Amino acid sequence: MDFETIAAIVADQFDRDPDTLDESTDLIEDLNCTSMDAVELIVAIESATDVRIPDEAVDSIRTIGDIVNYLAECADAEEEEE
What is the pLDDT along the chain (82 residues), one digit of tens a residue? Predict the structure, then answer.
């Protein structure tokens, strides 16, 4: 999953222009993400990517780049299993 796709999902969830977001955009500091917002964002990402993001992984996600990196790691792990 590429940055542009994740940025579009985040922008939609937080009513932002995706062009104003980058990998260092902090979900809490920059987007004022609440715990409810985080749940809705994770559900939207899981729906778009078919990747389940466990609670313990959510705790380590702070920026849009963290989301992209987590999904890349999941994709790499799937490729290694095949």
Answer: 799 999 999 999 999 999 999 999 999 999 999 999 999 999 999 999 989 999 999 989 999 999 999 999 998 887 777 6
Q: Which fold has domain 3-81?
A: 1.10.1200
pTM of the model: 0.90
| Residues whose CB is less than 8 angstroms from the CB of residue 25 and which lie 6 or more positions away in sequence, other chains included | 10, 31, 63, 64
Residue type present at position 16: R
In the chain, domain spans: 3-81
Q: Which two tokens stand for residue 74?
A: 């999941």
